[in-house]
Design a protein that fits this description.
It is built from nine helices and eight strands. With about 220 residues, it is of the alpha/beta class. Adenosine monophosphate (AMP) binds next to helix 2 and helix 3.
């Protein structure tokens, strides 16, 4: 299985990717997670990416493509993968097609999690992530049972630095301008599937399973 997850920040891509990983035994490749790890480790790549990330802009294609190329050449990708947060613009999508050609792989689907623009601000500013296990909650739409404590492992829930109102509105504009054109790009390739992302998490996961079954047949 080789899938791209498309959707605005806050559409639930990360949440669904984790569920697909558990169900299908594939891996999730999130460029946002890879970049945050590089920032936390203080690597040169992390330092170069930090300013763009803090202001809600895209990190340069060179950095992101270098990272993806290295990741897709690792052995654990043979079982399949879900790309989460990549590609983010047309240049990255074209570069991905080129890279997959070199690796003699094809992308099977781009699955879009569709959410009305108005819902995204609340989803993002309410988002909380477990510092220990990465589980995702939302103070408004999917709260943890005890405030600020992870239901899954009891770890502390933290808010991402870029989930504040100013950065969120920049990230949403960047999505509209740079990432939304990928919907037409993958529709033209006959690889686009749309899922209504406003429904309960488990209903969306079931629809992912249906789409993946359809994709295989
Ligand atoms: P995410 O966790 O996917 O929302 O990404 C967080 C931030 O990392 C984004 O706002 C960008 O600054 C950066 N980022 C993640 N993926 C990419 C990408 N494919 N291209 C450029 N920047 C990215």
């Amino acid at each position: 299985m080789r899938i791209v997850l498309l959707g605005a920040p806050g559409s639930g891509k990360g949440t669904q990717a984790k569920k697909l990983v558990d169900h299908y035994g594939v891996i999730q490749i999130s460029t946002g997670d890879l970049l945050r790890a590089a920032v936390a480790a203080g690597t040169p790549l992390g330092l170069a990416a930090k300013t763009a990330m803090d202001s809600g802009q895209l990190v340069s294609d060179d950095i992101v493509l270098g990272m993806i190329k290295e990741r897709l050449n690792q052995a654990d990708t043979q079982r399949g993968y879900i790309l989460d947060g990549f590609p983010r613009n047309l240049a990255q999508a074209e570069a991905l097609d080129g890279l997959l050609g070199e690796l003699q792989q094809t992308l099977e689907a781009a699955i879009l999690l569709d959410i009305p623009f108005e819902d995204l601000m609340q989803r993002l500013t309410g988002r909380q992530t477990c510092a220990d296990c990465g589980a995702v909650f939302n103070r408004f739409t999917h709260p943890s049972k005890q405030p600020d404590i992870c239901d899954a492992c009891g770890g502390p829930l933290i808010q991402r630095g870029d989930d504040n109102e100013a950065t969120v509105s920049k990230r949403l504009t960047v999505f509209e301008e740079q990432t939304a054109p990928l919907i037409a790009f993958y529709a033209d390739q006959g690889k686009l599937f749309r899922i209504d992302g406003t429904r309960p998490i488990d209903t969306i996961t079931e629809e992912f399973h249906d789409v993946i079954e359809r994709m295989k047949s």
